[in-house]
Structures are given as structure tokens and as C-alpha cells.
Automatic annotation (TrEMBL):
Gene3D superfamilies the record matches: MFS general substrate transporter like domains
Superkingdom of origin organism: Eukaryota
Source organism of this protein record: Salvia splendens (Scarlet sage)
Domain (NFD4 C-terminal) ranges: 47-168
Family: Belongs to the major facilitator superfamily. Phosphate:H(+) symporter (TC 2.A.1.9) family.
Descriptive protein name: NFD4 C-terminal domain-containing protein
Length: 177
């Protein structure tokens, strides 16, 4: 696992930069692909089959490792460096804020609902047990589907940004040549 971490840490920035310089592949389009890859990983967890969790772990690890560096490169491309520190901090807030909302407000209640449903099937009530425990893939299925939909919405938004900034990207990449 450490080898994957080091390979991702060293390789993804290199891949993004080489695609940009050789093929003029926009970073925003790279972000779209990374988000779509993350969506696939989340769906592999939502609808598991033997060995899918391992593949999903690698896919999600690579995509999460790529999202923030790409985000900060995109921020500097779109807005320049004059207010970069302020925009960097706003970008830093996106990850913990999104994690909090999606974990506490979405995933937790969905897990609790599924655990209560499982208790009801056993003929137990909430007061009879201290903790809500749910076993099986269905416990988090709806939560991972929602996470995949949110990620897909992010990919579509990123693709719209690519289309809207096509001329801007063409201009800045021509200047770098």
C-alpha cells in the first residue's frame, strides 16, 4: 500500500503536467476524468462483487489523491496568483466541509435507518439494544450511491467548466509554447 501511495504522490502530478505540455490536455478535463473514476470506485463499493473492494480502494485512492492538487492548479490557472492564498484556503475548506456534510448528514442517518430495519426484522426494538449494528453490503449501499451521484454531479460541473473555458485554455496554453 505504501508503494501505491508513493507512486500516486510522485506520478500523478507528473502525468497531469506531461499531458498538459505534450497534448495541451486541460487540467479541468483531467479533473473531470478523475471525478468519473472516483464515481466508478464508489459504485464498485455500492454494488460489490468478489475482489471489487480492492479495486475500488486503488481507484478511489488514486482519484482522491489527484483531486486537491488538480483543484489548486485549476484555481491558479483560472484566477491567477494575486489572491491565490485566499482562494487556496477556500479550496482547502471544500474537502472537510463536504466530508462533514456527506458523512454526518447523509451517510450516518442512512446507516441508522438500515440498522433499524435490520432490528425490526429480528423483532427487536431500539430500546433493547445499545448500539445500532448493521451487517452486509446493503448497510451502506444507498449512501455510496448518493456519494457516487454527488461525485457525478461534480464531474458534470467540471465538464461544463471545461466547455465554458475552452477559449481561455486555448489562449493560455498557446502562450506557454
Amino acid at each position: 500500500m505504501i508503494v501505491l501511495f508513493v507512486a500516486t504522490f510522485c506520478g500523478l502530478g507528473f502525468v497531469s503536467e506531461s499531458l498538459l505540455t505534450k497534448y495541451k490536455f486541460p487540467r479541468m478535463l483531467m479533473m473531470t476524468l478523475v471525478l468519473l473514476l472516483s464515481c466508478i470506485g464508489l459504485l464498485l463499493i455500492a454494488f460489490p462483487f468478489p475482489g471489487s473492494v480492492y479495486a475500488a480502494s486503488v481507484i478511489i485512492g488514486f482519484s482522491f489523491g489527484a483531486q486537491l492538487p488538480l483543484l489548486f492548479a485549476i484555481i491558479s490557472e483560472l484566477f491567477g496568483l494575486k489572491y491565490y492564498s485566499t482562494l487556496f484556503n477556500c479550496g482547502q475548506l471544500a474537502s472537510p466541509l463536504g466530508s462533514y456534510v456527506l458523512n454526518v448528514k447523509v451517510t450516518g442517518p442512512l446507516y441508522d435507518r438500515e440498522a433499524l430495519r435490520e432490528l425490526g426484522k429480528k423483532g427487536l426494538s431500539r430500546s433493547a439494544t445499545k448500539e445500532l449494528i448493521c451487517i452486509g453490503a446493503r448497510c451502506y449501499r444507498s449512501a455510496f450511491v448518493i456519494l457516487a451521484l454527488v461525485t457525478f454531479f461534480g464531474a458534470v460541473s467540471s465538464l461544463i467548466l471545461v466547455a465554458r473555458t475552452r477559449e481561455f485554455n486555448r489562449e493560455i496554453y498557446l502562450q506557454e509554447v
